[in-house]
Amino acid sequence: SMNQVIIDVERCKECGYCVNFCPSQALAIGSVINKRGYYPPVFDGAKCIACGVCARVCPDAAIEVMKEN
Predict the structure, then answer these.
(1) Chain centre distance of CA 25
(2) Are 14 and 30 in contact (CB under 8 A)?
(3) Pairing state between β 27-29 and 63-66
(4) CA–CA gap between residue 44 and residue 20 (Å, rounded)
């Protein structure tokens, strides 16, 4: 298993903080719209370093980081 970012897509309001602050560019704005009309990010597990920055900068607490053990 690899590091994983769990995104609560319906809580996302596409502020872009997670994408902009990710040091390893593991997140990008996605192409699937949520019920509120926003595009939640998509996650690239191969790039993720499980630093937790995305979860900390998300103003809507929509992101959780699971570190590989």
Answers:
(1) 10
(2) no
(3) unpaired
(4) 14
